[in-house]
Design a protein that fits this description.
The complex is a heterodimer of chains A (429) and B (326). With 429 residues, chain A is α/β, with parallel strands linked by helices. Chain A has helices at 75-84, 103-116, 139-144, 160-170, 184-187, 196-201, 209-225, 237-248, 259-263, 285-297, 312-315, 332-341, 348-355, 357-362, and strands at residues 4-13, 18-27, 30-35, 44-47, 52-55, 57-62, 87-92, 120-125, 149-151, 177-179, 192-193, 205-206, 229-231, 253-257, 302-303, 378-388, 407-417, 420-424, 427-428. Chain A is globular and about 65 Å long. By secondary structure, chain B is α/β, with parallel strands linked by helices. In chain B, helix 1 (26-39) packs across helix 6 (147-161) and helix 1 crosses helix 12 (294-325). Classes of the chains: A alpha/beta (429), B alpha/beta (326). The A-B interface holds A 188, 194-196, 198-203, 205, 271-272, 313, 316-321 and B 22, 99-101, 119, 121-124, 126-127, 131, 141-145, 177, 179, 182, 205-208, 210-211, 240.
């Protein structure tokens, strides 16, 4: 086993402050050396001239749908999609059928992952049993079995006292609680951002304040009990401001933002495109700008895809009946690069940090770097590579995205997980 | 009265579907109104049928109860000699699990040329239009649009007032849940009317000023010097609790009575899309009074729907010919 030598690439490794032309030698599943003019006679050579060599991306938020909704996605297809998008680690959301809220669920997930996954899968478990919002789960046991975070994602933890106890209890294990911040009483049957487009289309709105009141509550609770609260998929300007203030006060609050909230607005719903229906909803241009500013100043720590596959059958419905969610793993980098780096608003190193070392740190994963000795999770990206998001090329089992048919730029060409090449030039190896 | 504008080239209607007045150009709206005016006298002819849609199948696909709109479309299509099928779908068949698209595809497979649909969800007609070959007419999609109602309202205004441009039109009531309000706003603003919306603050969507309307919460101010008041039905079936305190309070603040009518212009037109809640949003006296054109609206609805059916058929035929020529 001679390892892999990645030659002539431009390395960006934010954790080690490397942004330069370097070679990377991978041996025994780990990064053996990073330097100039490396040679290894037995190694397989990947010529990365003109390409960027990055730590593998870490996604804080993906729905792999297994067990239960294998018609939408499986661990096999979802992790292949991840590899194609340059993600070498994904945190799998627990809102499957059954919900991952006890030992049996997480045990199943671990064995299925060992069998089918081509990237690292880190399970999140539910905050409450059955995500019913009533009883907290066995956090300690679930952590021992591999849960890296707790979330009722898909739903908000609506009961403030339950959220308090969850934060208070998980703090002793130093594990974050991830909250989907949408007050169900304010959301009601809303399907779209309450704003200009909901007004025009006569669709029931979800006001931005439905997110903001929960963000404010979560920050106040985390400040009081000292846990780590992580705000999922921030969508509204006011939420960004509250998180900024919370951080200034020293609260252990982190936050993620999705590529779609960074790139799209409520306008994407104007033609009743159910692929643009997502929770929280795509909001106004003002909100979008606030998200970008938040990502630039670090108020929003990480980019997370909230990859949420749904079948054509589910999405070919009237807007109010179609489910919330869109896929994102395979083109998250291209969307963010196009929106942030190509426009000159963010440098590439910061984008890479927000997709690698920072999300890894939020989950306390020893991932997201190219340090010598680290797991060799590596993504090699061609910033000039153009691809059209299409049914023919997506590896995900579902195609629900408003980017379908759009041509984007900046895609991974090789993805290594644990030193093994799993994706190369459009194919799973 | 409507005059043919001989000095201008004939108005053209190029739509393949009628999904909403948002999507029509001013000229297309004018075209419908002009054709409706031509159809209207035929309603009083001894023999009322015309062969325009002979051999064509028009399907009324109604997922929500409606007597007046469905019947109006049915009469309009029959006057044009179409075969008309009424397909009223209760909520039960949704419970059986058939999707809207499958239901619609089945109907198309049975041979529909035009599908007229009412559905409780905004955008339902868009979904059909993007998947089927039949021409789709929106007969009301949730709280979104009800374009033929908007057209017949404008037709009636123009018939009575001789113009639309410059008229002050107050739309009164539950704007938030009203497809009639949205279609009126799109159409009237395109034709140059001054449009006001008036109602309780909880029933007026935020940001509606962007559509070029003025917002009033006070009835007397909202109808001051109005040429037309278009009163919306309080849709109790759509309402969550707590959108306003009570029917009683609604009547106190927004019920249109003779007493209040004096704030409007002396020759104000009173319109209502029906069905009306007598004694709630409109008093008995106003509903039946000299200003009311509620029944003429219903009659005009047939002429307007004939025009829409005719123009959609014509636009389709022209498109087919063009494609053949290419």
């Amino acid at each position: 086993m001679g390892g892999i030598l990645i030659k002539n690439g431009h390395i960006i490794d934010p954790a080690n402050r490397v942004d330069a032309r370097r070679d990377v030698l991978v041996e025994g599943g780990r990064i053996a050396a990073v330097g100039t003019g490396l040679s290894a006679p037995d190694a397989q050579v990947i010529d990365a001239a003109g390409l960027y060599v990055l730590p593998g991306f870490v996604d804080l938020h993906a729905h792999l749908r297994e067990p239960g909704r294998e018609d939408e996605e499986t661990i096999r297809t979802g992790t292949r999609a991840a590899a194609a998008g340059g993600f070498t680690s994904v945190c799998a959301m627990p809102n499957t059928t059954p919900i991952i809220d006890r030992a049996t669920g997480i045990n199943y997930l671990r064995s299925a992952t060992q069998r089918d996954a081509v990237v690292n899968v880190f399970p999140a478990a539910a905050v409450t049993v059955g995500q019913q919002g009533k009883e907290i789960t066995e956090f300690g046991d679930l952590i021992q079995r591999g849960a890296v975070a707790f979330t009722d994602d898909g739903h908000c933890v609506a009961d403030a006292e339950i959220m308090r106890r969850a934060l208070e209890y998980t703090a002793m294990f130093d594990v974050p609680v991830l909250d989907h911040c949408e007050d169900p009483m304010l959301k009601r049957d809303g399907v779209i951002h309450e704003g200009r487009v909901s007004m025009m289309l006569g669709l029931r709105g979800i006001p931005a304040v439905s997110e903001t009141v929960i963000v404010a509550r979560d920050i106040a609770l985390a400040e009081y009990v000292g846990g780590h609260v992580h705000i999922q998929h921030v969508s509204a300007r006011r939420s960004v401001e509250l998180i900024r203030e919370g951080k200034r006060r020293g609260v252990r609050v982190t936050a993620e933002v999705t590529p779609h909230h960074l790139a799209l607005t409520e306008e994407a719903c104007l033609n009743f495109d159910t692929n643009a229906k997502v929770a929280p909803p795509l909001r106004s241009e003002d909100d979008r700008q606030a998200l970008i500013e938040g990502l630039l100043d670090g108020t929003l720590d990480a980019i997370a895809t909230d990859h949420a596959p749904h079948t054509d059958i589910e999405k070919d419905m009237v807007f109010t009946e179609a489910p919330f969610g869109m896929i994102g793993l395979e083109f998250a980098f291209a969307v963010c690069h196009g929106e942030l780096v190509a426009t000159g608003r963010m440098d590439l190193a910061m984008l890479v940090a927000r997709m690698t070392a920072i999300p890894a740190a939020i989950l306390r994963l020893n991932k997201g770097t190219l340090s010598v000795g680290a797991d060799a999770d590596i993504t090699i990206v061609d910033l000039g590579l153009e691809k059209t998001v299409s049914r023919g090329t997506l590896l995900s089992k579902s195609y629900n995205t408003p980017f379908l048919g759009k041509t984007l730029r900046g895609f991974p060409v090789h993805t290594l997980v644990g030193g093994r090449l799993v994706y190369s030039n459009g194919r799973i190896v | 009265m409507i005059e043919a504008r001989k000095d201008e080239k004939p108005l053209e209607f190029r739509q393949e579907h009628l999904l909403g007045l948002e999507y029509l150009a001013r000229e297309e709206i004018e075209c419908v109104l002009q054709n409706a005016a031509a159809f209207k006298p035929t309603l009083d002819q001894k023999v009322k049928k015309m062969p325009t849609l002979l051999g064509k199948t028009v399907v009324n696909l109604f997922f929500e109860n409606s007597t007046r709109t469905r019947t109006s479309f049915e009469i309009a299509a029959k006057r044009l000699s179409a075969d008309v099928i009424n397909f009223t779908v209760g909520t039960s068949s949704v419970a059986k699990g058939e999707s809207l698209l499958d239901t619609a595809r089945t109907i198309e497979a049975l041979g529909s040329d035009i599908i007229i649909m009412r559905h409780s969800c905004p955008g339902a007609c868009h979904l059909l239009a993007s998947h089927l070959r039949s021409a789709i007419i929106n007969a009301g999609d949730g709280c979104h649009e009800h374009p033929t109602q908007g057209l017949l309202d404008m037709f009636t205004m123009r018939e009575k007032k001789g113009r639309i441009e410059g008229l002050t039109v107050t739309i009164l009531g539950d704007i938030l849940h009203s497809r009639v309000a949205r279609s009126n706003i799109w159409g009237l603003t395109k034709l140059g009317a001054h449009v006001r919306v008036c109602g309780p603050r909880t029933l007026i969507p935020r940001g509606i000023e962007e559509l070029g309307v003025q917002v009033f919460y006070n009835l007397e101010q909202g109808i001051r010097d109005a040429d037309v008041i278009n009163i919306l039905r309080i849709q109790r079936e759509r309402m969550d609790s707590n959108m306003f305190p009570s029917i009683r309070e609604y009547r106190l603040l927004y019920g249109l009575t003779h007493e209040r009518l004096r704030f409007a212009k002396p020759d104000v037109l009173i319109m209502h899309p029906g069905p009306i809640n007598r004694g709630i949003e409109i008093s008995q006296g106003v509903a039946d009074g000299e200003h009311s054109v509620i029944n003429q609206q219903v009659t005009n609805g047939v002429a307007v729907r004939m025009a829409v059916l005719f123009l959609l058929r014509q636009a389709r035929a022209q498109k087919t010919e063009l494609e053949k020529a290419e």
